[in-house]
Amino acid sequence: MNIVTVFVVSQGACVWVPDPEAVQNASYFIYIGANHLYAILLFLNKEMEYPVLPPVGLPPLRNPDILEGENDLTALTFLHEPAVLHNLRVRFLDYSSIYTYCQIVLVVLNPYEQLPIYGEEVIDAYSGQDMADMEPHIFSVAEEAYRTMIREEKNQSIIISGESGSSKTVSAKFTMHYFAVMGGAAQQTSAIGNAKTTRNNNSSRFGKYIEIGFGRRGDIIGANMRTYLLEKSRVVFQVLWEGICL
């Protein structure tokens, strides 16, 4: 079988190339090398060869500068890992934003510090607003679920997922606080955690399934929380001590 490879990339196009430290670095495409085995890229004013044979192919293209810092990843022209990481980095460093939409999904970066973006005035700003009309925030997701529940009288679910230290417990805390304010039972909620890891000083060892009951007027009438073990994989062996008798 003969394979014909067609490359449709303009000279000077900005692309991403892997980097062991920065993960991805910006480079510029110049031309396809002999026999279509490699591409010649310009990186830090030096030409470099990049293999383009399947399954590698050409390096992923960068998005136009005008799309940098988009608050919804689905608005990007090119949606791949380097584009997502770069956009999240720009939003965090240049816009001081830890939240980014990916359609109805909210991507959260843990800043590892307290931020003044969860006060009562912020709750008031997001109350009654559509997700599309507001900057990404955990309160916007909570508001969307709350309003849909009231309007359609159907149960809603918010799934908070991520690796250890990604702020799952804190995100659940602020979500419940928003519901408490909307449901007329506002009070401080606290995080639940019971272990310290190399990446998280307050790591939750258990998954939590939280149910909050609301009346027809949207007021909280009850709540229930169940826990289930998720971290069995961390228990890999039992330490055995050898005693010495004197």
Can you walk me through this structure?
The protein has 246 residues and is of the alpha+beta class. The chain is built from four helices and eight strands. Mean pLDDT is 80; it is low at 1-8. The protein folds into two domains: 1-62, SH3 type barrels, CATH 2.30.30; 98-233, 3-Layer(aba) Sandwich (Kinesin). 17% of the residues are buried. It has a four-stranded antiparallel β-sheet with strand order 1-2-3-4, with no helix packed on it. A two-stranded antiparallel ribbon has the order 5-6. Strands 7-8 form a two-stranded antiparallel sheet. Helix 3 (138-152) crosses helix 4 (168-182).
**H-E order:** EEEEHEEHHHEE
Class inferred from helices and paired strands: alpha+beta
Strand tally is 8
Radius of gyration: 24 Å
| Low-confidence runs | 1-8
Shape: elongated
Task: Name the average pLDDT.
Answer: 80
Strand residues, percent: 15-25%
What is the structure about, briefly put?
This is Methyl-CpG binding domain protein 3b. Residues 68-246 form the Myosin motor domain. The protein is an alpha+beta fold and 246 residues long.
Characteristics:
Kinesin; alpha+beta; 22% strand; two-stranded antiparallel sheet; Methyl-CpG binding domain protein 3b; SH3 type barrels; disordered N terminus; 4-stranded antiparallel β-sheet; P-loop_NTPase; actin filament binding; motor protein; 246 residues; 21% helix; 2 domains; myosin
